[in-house]
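Many introductory courses stop at the sequence. We go one step further.
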Amino acid sequence: MDQHLNVFITVAEKQNFSRAAEELHMTQPAVSQYIRVLEENMGTRLLERTNKYVRLNKAGEIVYHHGKEIIGLYEKMQNLVDDLANKATGSLSIGASYTFGEYVLPKIIAEMQEVYPGIKPEITIGNTADISEQVMTRRLDVGIVEGHFKKEQHMEVEAFANDDMVIIASPRHPLAHHGGNITGAVLEHETWILRELGSGTRSSAEAVFERLNITPSNTIHFSSTQSIKEAVEAGLGISLLSQWAIQKDIRNGDLVCLDVAELPFTRQFSIVTASPFQTKALQSFIDLVKGHQRTVR
C-alpha cells in the first residue's frame, strides 16, 4: 500500500497532523514529510493549513476520494490472496438501505461475528440510491437495498426476499376504526408521511399511489423510517412502511395497519455488488443474508 496516500487520508480525516501522527504511530515531522512528498508528486498543494485546522482544498478532495478507492482495492487484493488459504477474514464494507439496515442487518452482523470473527464489518446506512451508487463506485463491497433503482453496467443485482408494505396509522386516527376496506378516494385526502426521493420506501409509496389512482396533496417528508413511525404515532398522518419495520410497534399497540383494498404492496430486497471477484468474507456474508430469507418475508 502507498504509505504517502495512507498518511494523507489519515491527516484529512483527523484534520490535524498531531492526531494523525498518533493514529499512525509516527512522529509529526515524519507525517509532514510524507504530505510534502505527496504534494510535490502531485504538483500542487492538497491541504489548507492554519493554526486552528487542516482542511482539504479542491485538489485534496479529488486525491482523498480516489485515494480511498485505491486503498480499498489494495485491501480487496490482499483479501483475495488470503482466500487462497481458505480464510474468511479482513474488512468488509457493507451498505444497506434504512429498512434492511435498521431492522434486519443487525441480526445478520451478530451471527457473522459469531461464525466468522475474523471478518471486520464496516456498516453504512443510507437510502437505496446512495447505497447502490457507493457500491458502483467501489466504496462499498456489497449493498442490500429495497425496491427499484437504476442499475448501472457491471452491477450485479440478485433479489433474495420479498417485503410486504402496509399503510399504518396511529390507533387514535379515525381510519383506525374504519369498517371494511378503505378506498383510495378516502386515503387521497389524508396527510401522508413519506421518505425522501431516492429512498426505496418512497418509490414503493409512489407505486402504491399509482395503483390506488390517487395523488395526495398534503405530504410531510422525513429522512428515516424511525422518524416516520414517531410522526405517525403522534398523529401527524399515515404512511406506507415495511411490515418488517413495524412488527414491534404493532405488537405494542403503538401503530395499526389499515385495511386497504389492493394491499399489501410487495417489493424485493436485493443484494448489489460491482466487483467480478468476491472475497471469502463477502461470499460468507452473502450466504448469511440468503439464509435469512425465511425471516425476511
